[in-house]
Amino acid sequence: MKLEEVHQDHICRTIEVAVVEPTKVSPAVKLPPTADDSETNGEELYIPPLNFAMVDNGIFRSGFPDCANFPFLQTLGLRSIIYLCPEPYPDTNMEFLKSNGIELFQFGIEPCKEPFVNIPEGTIRKALKVVLDVKNHPLLIHCKRGKHRTGCLVGCLRKLQRWCLTSVFDEYQCFAAAKARVSDQRFMELFDVSSFRHLPLSFSCSKRIGARFLRPSSSCQQRLYKEGS
Amino acid sequence: MKLEEVHQDHICRTIEVAVVEPTKVSPAVKLPPTADDSETNGEELYIPPLNFAMVDNGIFRSGFPDCANFPFLQTLGLRSIIYLCPEPYPDTNMEFLKSNGIELFQFGIEPCKEPFVNIPEGTIRKALKVVLDVKNHPLLIHCKRGKHRTGCLVGCLRKLQRWCLTSVFDEYQCFAAAKARVSDQRFMELFDVSSFRHLPLSFSCSKRIGARFLRPSSSCQQRLYKEGS
């Protein structure tokens, strides 16, 4: 792998990596089967990463993806990944990114155990800017388990989308489940989104789909279906 | 309200309801504030329904929405709602649908308590056809709590999207949590999606975003960020 340091100013480091021809891609990152394949009767199944979910148009979240998840991730046509852990990205995952032209944004947030919790606000702010930039979409946010660090970043995005705190916490708890942390929720509550207010939220399901599909008020149809009919 | 029976063939009943002028809409369904409003500093917050989530492009899921959720639902620009309970839709919700031109597809599935569980497969099949029809998007699927009936329908959709069962169950359990039912999971496992295989899945995030954004393999950039920099 040829590493060339392109840019370093104490904010980010950009590494240009070698071109990988599709034919040189390892078997683990083979192209996913299409709907026309003969293996559509259950043999070829996609394995989304742990805690995978769609956050909004072009934004996904999950736990750490491994090679079993690569065929599924390819179906998302990702342009970038936000990785929220300090550990180096594994070679297998870097190979997958290279062969699919996916940019990696790594924000090294140390894992925390209560009561010694310190979600770094500045890092979350930088990550949120990357999330909000549609040029990076489709984008996957992940940490290790897709619960705490990912949950906090998504929670801050929801605040910017003007979700009430109850709903922000409801979503956070849906993924964190028994591992939900009061300190994470306090961080989201106190996170001030006012400095992001000027940014366009064109990526949001709220705005895009609304603008594209909203029909004028006219009539309403109701269809009732019953079993056996 | 003027009710006119347009179509009845033992499969569905279509009810054309009166036009409601926007000025006559109740305060509960007022238009949501825009990003330009002066109340953007926390005063005007959206309240998504319980268990709300995005399933895929143009497909959402939730528990039963009440009038507090209407401003949020308006931001989704919904074209239709799939309602999975047998009880009549409340008048307030019907008013909201009318004033926003949203079509209601009601599939009356009785609530079940284990061990007396009987998810009606035929009804789920009909509902799934409605989900797959992009003409109905953006679409919200809901039952009462967004756990069991909604979870089963979404699970069948995931099988059609070729998700492995582990991931289907993982998502189901994320919303059902402590109320997860083995019988629901057995229903999803046994649900045969082969009859839907011929339908195009153009609605899927997999296909749409992938086709729109996927770039050729060329290079990969990695950016590393650290707190304090």
UniProtKB/TrEMBL annotation, chains A, B:
Keywords on record: Hydrolase
GO molecular function, one term: inositol-5-diphosphate-1,2,3,4,6-pentakisphosphate diphosphatase activity
Domain Tyrosine-protein phosphatase: 51-205
Catalytic reaction(s) noted: 3,5-bis(diphospho)-1D-myo-inositol 1,2,4,6-tetrakisphosphate + H2O = 3-diphospho-1D-myo-inositol 1,2,4,5,6-pentakisphosphate + phosphate + 2 H(+); 5-diphospho-1D-myo-inositol 1,2,3,4,6-pentakisphosphate + H2O = 1D-myo-inositol hexakisphosphate + phosphate + H(+); 1,5-bis(diphospho)-1D-myo-inositol 2,3,4,6-tetrakisphosphate + H2O = 1-diphospho-1D-myo-inositol 2,3,4,5,6-pentakisphosphate + phosphate + 2 H(+); 6-diphospho-1D-myo-inositol pentakisphosphate + H2O = 1D-myo-inositol hexakisphosphate + phosphate + H(+)
EC class: hydrolase
EC number(s) per entry: 3.6.1.52
Record family assignment: Belongs to the protein-tyrosine phosphatase family. Atypical dual-specificity phosphatase Siw14-like subfamily.
Name the UniProt record assigns to this protein: diphosphoinositol-polyphosphate diphosphatase
Source organism of the structure: Ilex paraguariensis
Source lineage: Eukaryota, Viridiplantae, Streptophyta, Embryophyta, Tracheophyta
